[in-house]
From TrEMBL:
Family: Belongs to the UPF0102 family.
Protein name: UPF0102 protein HL667_26525
NCBIfam families xrefs: PRK12497.1-5, YraN family protein
InterPro entries noted in UniProt: Restrct_endonuc-II-like (IPR011335), tRNA_endonuc-like_dom_sf (IPR011856), UPF0102_YraN-like (IPR003509)
Organism encoding this protein: Bradyrhizobium aeschynomenes
Amino acid sequence: MAKTERASPDKPVKTAAPERVAAFRTGLSAEARAAALLMAKGYRILAKRFRTPHGEIDIIARKRNLVAFVEVKARASLDDAAYAVTPRQQHRIIDAAQAWLMAHPDHAELELRFDAILVAPRSLPRHLIAAFDASQ
């Protein structure tokens, strides 16, 4: 979404490129679809878009004694979305999960899992349970 500021003679107005705005909106829509899918499966959403200096977790959800750290990927196809969860990104998500657990120690004793939800046009979202693990 474009950042709005008042124009002044010494400070030009900054706006995001249209493709960045579209990508941001697509991401928000995909995350909303993913959260709805998780809730339909009985998960409770604990956090969305949890950010740290090391990385971001799109959704943190809990179901019984399980906490799932969920990466949401939206691409033109579900296969493209699956390939977009790279090892480097997995490492950043794991680091962010450690930060979240330090801030929420009551959840650290539960079962932990790293999932992915893939979103593509004209397809139902696909939930990949245990898409990767912290030992990779």
